[in-house]
């Protein structure tokens, strides 16, 4: 289902992937610095989640300014929270690369503003912890303030997220967290000698099983 989400004086293009049965929980998903919501990994993940009963809303926001991207993400969260068509008890924010940074920023700011537990977790696909070859400056400021559960899915050969550095940041985080490493994958999740669909399947399965774990914990 295609929708236009109001954002300031313009609209963001977005698409709902709707499961057959009514879903109590949803995932909002966005892309990295390049591309848009039709980036193959996002389309694949949204379809997988919807086929396993989880509503997924993915949106496009062009712009390389992280504060602007975070504002757009916040507008989408508000839109879904007030939606009469899909009454959700909670959502997970998810993004690829720069999109995951925007999601982390939104969660940090929303947690300072209100105490409601509408946001249940964060999924970071290829979180860009540092610029290539610039490991001294880490983009970890938002991660250290987040309290909700966080899943990282990163390539072990990601040139923007060195393995030891992410593990170091994770050890300092107060939030419950899990890191799933895609063996030998780069920042674009490409693995030499491995089919793209195969890698996407691994990512999708990991994300869904983690979501199910968190949602189950909520209900216990």
Automatic annotation (TrEMBL):
Domain KANL3/Tex30 alpha/beta hydrolase-like: 27-203
Transmembrane segments: none
Protein name: Testis-expressed sequence 30 protein
Species this chain originates from: Antrostomus carolinensis (Chuck-will's-widow)
UniProt lineage: Eukaryota, Metazoa, Chordata, Craniata, Vertebrata
